[in-house]
Specification:
heterodimer, A: mainly alpha, Non-ribosomal Peptide Synthetase Peptidyl Carrier Protein, Chain A, 60% helix, B: 232 residues, alpha/beta, 7-stranded parallel beta sheet, 16% strand
C-alpha cells in the first residue's frame, strides 16, 4: 500500500503543479518535503497535505487525517519526505 | 457559472432556517445542519443531523459535498448557543457547551470549508458574533467570551486564507426575535436596544442584507471585518 500512496503523492503534486507548490522538480519517494533542502515552502506543504488527504479519501474511500495530533507530535515528523508521509498515511488507513 | 454551493449551520430554526430558505429560493444548493431533524423542506436543501463540534461528523459533511459537487462557495457559521446568567451562577458545563458549539464548531467548519474552497481559489465565510461583545453585556460572560473568540478566529483566518481567494468576515446582530432571546427578560432586551444608535430589535432582513454583501463576488477586497448592526 505504501508504494501506491507514494505514487498518489507524486501524482497529486504533479496535478497541483508549479503554481500551487512552487516546485521545480518532480517528486519521488526520497524527496525531502520541507526543512533544510526541502522541496516545499510552508504553504506548499499545507497545500500538498490537504490535497493528499483528499486524494487518499477518493482512492481508498476512507477519510484520513494526515494533520492529526499524532502526526504533529512525533519527534520525527512524518512530513519529512514523500516516503515517510506515505508510510504515515498507510498506517492511518490501516488503523481506521 | 453553476449554482452556488452554500453551507449554513444551525438551520433547524431561527436565523439559520431563514437564511437557508432565502438562499435556496435564490438558487443556491444549500447544505444545512442541526442536532435534530429540521421539520421543514425546500428544493435544493440538504440536511445533515450533526453536532457542529464533532470533528468526525463535520468532516463527513464536507466529504459528501466534495463527492457530490466538488466545490463550495459559501459558509455561514450561524449555529450558536447562549446562556444568560451571572458568571457567579454559571456552571462550568454550560461554559464548555457554549465554547464547543460557538468556538470549536466555527473553527471546524472554517477549516473544512477552506480545504474545499481552496481548490477553486474562491470562498466566502461569514462567522456570527453579537453586539454583546462590544457592549460588554453583563450576564453573558461565557457567550461574549465565545463570540470574542469567534471574532479572533475571523481576524486570523482572514489572513491565513487570503491567498486562497477566501474572505472571512463576522456579522454581529442585535437581538432578533428568535428562540435565542425569547428566554431573556423583556427589560433586559429593552435596555440593550437602548444602547444601540438605532433603537429597535433587529429583523431577518437586516442580517440577510449584510450577508448578501459579504457573499458578493465583488466583496473580494473585504475580509477580516466585524460588522455590527444597529449602530453599536
Amino acid at each position: 500500500m505504501q508504494q501506491e500512496i507514494i505514487e498518489l503523492i507524486v501524482e497529486t503534486a504533479r496535478e497541483l503543479g508549479e503554481d500551487e507548490l512552487s516546485l521545480t522538480e518532480e517528486l519521488n519517494a526520497d524527496t525531502r518535503l520541507f526543512g533544510k533542502e526541502g522541496a516545499l515552502d510552508s504553504m506548499g506543504l499545507v497545500t500538498l497535505i490537504i490535497a493528499v488527504e483528499q486524494a487518499i479519501e477518493d482512492r481508498f474511500e476512507s477519510p484520513v487525517a494526515l494533520a492529526d495530533e499524532k502526526a504533529l507530535s512525533q519527534t520525527r515528523s512524518p512530513y519529512r519526505s514523500v516516503a515517510t508521509l506515505a508510510e504515515y498515511a498507510a498506517s492511518q488507513i490501516q488503523g481506521s | 457559472m453553476s449554482e452556488p454551493v452554500t453551507v449554513i449551520t444551525g438551520t433547524r430554526k431561527g436565523i439559520g432556517r431563514h437564511l437557508a430558505e432565502y438562499y435556496c429560493d435564490r438558487g443556491h444548493i444549500v447544505f444545512g445542519c442541526s442536532r435534530g431533524e429540521p421539520g421543514w423542506e425546500r428544493d435544493n436543501y440538504n440536511h445533515f443531523v450533526a453536532d457542529v463540534s464533532d470533528e468526525g461528523q463535520v468532516k463527513s459533511i464536507f466529504s459528501t459535498i466534495r463527492r457530490e459537487h466538488g466545490r463550495l462557495d459559501n459558509l455561514l457559521n450561524n449555529a450558536g448557543i447562549a446562556s444568560m446568567n451571572h458568571s457567579l451562577l454559571t456552571p462550568v458545563n454550560t461554559v464548555r457547551k457554549i465554547m464547543d458549539t460557538n468556538v470549536i464548531g466555527s473553527f471546524l467548519f472554517c477549516r473544512e470549508a477552506a480545504k474545499l474552497m481552496k481548490k477553486n481559489k474562491y470562498g466566502r465565510i461569514v462567522n456570527f458574533s453579537t453586539v454583546a461583545v462590544p457592549l460588554k453585556l453583563e450576564g453573558e460572560a461565557a457567550y461574549v467570551a465565545s463570540k470574542s473568540a469567534v471574532e479572533g478566529l475571523t481576524n486570523v483566518l482572514s489572513r491565513e486564507f487570503a491567498g486562497f481567494g477566501i474572505t472571512v468576515n463576522t456579522i454581529g446582530p442585535v437581538p432578533i426575535d428568535t428562540d435565542l432571546i425569547r428566554a431573556v427578560p423583556k427589560d433586559k432586551i429593552e435596555s440593550l436596544v437602548e444602547r444601540q444608535s438605532i433603537k429597535r430589535l433587529g429583523q431577518m432582513d437586516d442580517v440577510v442584507n449584510v450577508i448578501d454583501f459579504f457573499l458578493r463576488a465583488e466583496s473580494e477586497f473585504v475580509t477580516g471585518q466585524s460588522l455590527y448592526l444597529g449602530g453599536v
